[in-house]
Request: fold
Amino acid sequence: MFIAPYDTPAASRHLRLIWSCLGMKREELQTCLAQIPSGSSLLVDQADIDWLRLSAPRHNLLCKTGSGIDRLRPDGSVAETMALYEHCLPSQIVDHPSRSVVALDVVLNENTEEAWEEAETLIAGGLPSQIAASALIGTPQEIALRLNDYRKLGLYDVILTAPAARAPYREVSEILLPLLRQQAIPMDTHARVAGISNGPFEWHGAAL
Reply:
């Protein structure tokens, strides 16, 4: 029996979360690496690929190109190229290529009100309205529901763009990811096309 060495998210139907490390200094990269589990996926600058191959050989690396997001094999070759949707709500992604990825900011807190207070502080500090409006804000349970709306569209890769200074690396790894793995796979084609959530959190976006 032949077992394929590379199983894409499209086949597994599980959401894959990718941490954006674009523009990070090496100290910030080290902070990230210290808090995420082995085998995590990282979107990195071309200049950091060789260093990361040595420092964190078990992590999955991706890079941004003019044509989208390239997922790299361990030898550096391109396994696949995905179309990129930056800071878009499900309703803004009506049609997309079969292999696509969406980039979203994240503000995660165990308390809903505190998460939104943090988001409002970021907005007051200059967080762009487009990024804030599509950001994943709330508790791990609330964010899991939000992410399920993208999975209903057939999007199984999500780039988390929060900068290293406030990225909830441990919370995502220890709480959010297990919740995502427990979710049933939506098969409703109507929901997949419309991108509409049947859960209690149907309004998305920050108060701007």
Remarks:
- Confidence is low (pLDDT under 50) at residues 1-11, 185-208.
- Residues 36 and 169 are 6 Å apart (CA to CA).
- The longest strand covers residues 78-86.
